[in-house]
Amino acid sequence: MNSSAILELISLTKQFENQPLPAVNQVSLTLRQGELLGLLGPSGCGKTTLLRLIAGFERPQSGSIELAGRTVCGTGTWIPPERRDVGVVFQDYALFPHLCVLDNVAFGLKSLARRGKLANPQIREEAERAIALVGLSGFEKRFPHQLSGGQQQRVALARAIAPRPSLILLDEPFSNLDVQVRLYLRQEVRDILKSVGASGVFVTHDQEEALSISDCLAVMRQGTVEQFGTPEAIYRQPASRFVAGFVTQANFLQAQREGSVWKTLLGAFPANNHASNSNLGELMIRQEELMLHPDAAGELVVRDRQFLGREYRYTLTTATGELLHARTNTCDRLDIGQTVHGKVATQHPPIFLKDS
């Protein structure tokens, strides 16, 4: 294992009975100390199964897992979940309803004390420290039903970080929260994990959430990692049509190569970098890169307009009935039904080739 790595997965594969394809298929990746890894993908792509394999809740058919410099799974080794030195925050929080906040947070610490890794007098001290860290000092004696969803999520996080594990695992931690709480709490959780130097892996199907929280991102599809890298690199240089569509939520324009250019509805673009026999492709145009100008002879018609505060999001139709989307500032408002000309802000948008 790399000396700076906290987690290393090597050719990890898990296939459930009566399923034709593996839920996780030959996944290899490395997470460095102090980083947050987002597992992003549509429902059923294997991201939660991968998290459960790391936690030890599932056993793989093949492959290995190294955590904090030791093998916890593979090559004849199997370390059970309670001895893997990981903290888990579940989607439904999984708080004990009959225990107050303090006792919920102290639960994992008592397990450490039983194994001789923590003195009994330190349990309350460490639990209170974790509660303060998530901003819930004064709530120690409250029970879960007396807390809001956001507060329950903080208790779950405090319980996970109180034993100071090597790795925190979060399974869709914000999916049950209202939008405004989710936006606030996801930044707060990142700040809390960073403040204690924790490494983390979290599952999400929300593209914006993954981009905003992650230091590195694994985009999953049908059990495999389609692309692994920084959020910026994946957004700017998607490795496949799937990643481009799922992560960037971009437009895809039909394109045909003619000589040294790709011809599209919105003009021609250089085709110099594509040595292929295919003359058909799809040009990726990010919503923020599609510039709109009123033009009675334009090729687009405004079908819908959404006001998003700092920007408008337009839905546009082409002459062939295709839908495109654009995000613009609120200085120039376009009317529904208005005909406009579309211009792409970059001369070299990504192109994804099709079979001829």
Over all CA atoms, what is the radius of gyration?
A: 24 Å
Instruction: List low-confidence stretches.
Output: none
Estimate the helix proportion, in percent: 10-25%
Average residue pLDDT = 92
**In percent, how much strand structure appears in the residues?**
25-35%
Number of helices: 8
Shape: globular
Broad structural category: alpha+beta
Straight-line distance between termini: 44 Å
Major sheet attributes = 6 strands, mixed
Largest beta sheet: what is the strand line-up? 7-8-9-3-10-11
Summarize the helix and strand pattern as letters: EEEHEEEEHHHEHEHEEHHEEEEEEEEEE
Question: Which terms would index this structure?
Answer:
about 350 residues; alpha+beta; 6-stranded mixed sheet; 5-stranded antiparallel sheet; 8 helices; about 25% helix
Give the helices and strands, then pairings:
Layout: E1 5-14, E2 24-32, E3 36-40, H1 47-55, E4 62-67, E5 70-74, E6 77-78, E7 86-89, H2 101-114, H3 122-133, H4 149-161, E8 167-171, H5 179-195, E9 199-204, H6 207-213, E10 216-221, E11 224-229, H7 231-236, H8 241-248, E12 251-258, E13 261-264, E14 267-270, E15 280-285, E16 290-294, E17 300-307, E18 311-317, E19 323-329, E20 339-344, E21 351-353
Parallel strand pairs: 3-9, 3-10, 7-8, 8-9
Antiparallel strand pairs: 1-2, 1-4, 4-5, 5-6, 10-11, 12-13, 12-15, 13-14, 15-21, 16-20, 17-18, 17-20, 18-19
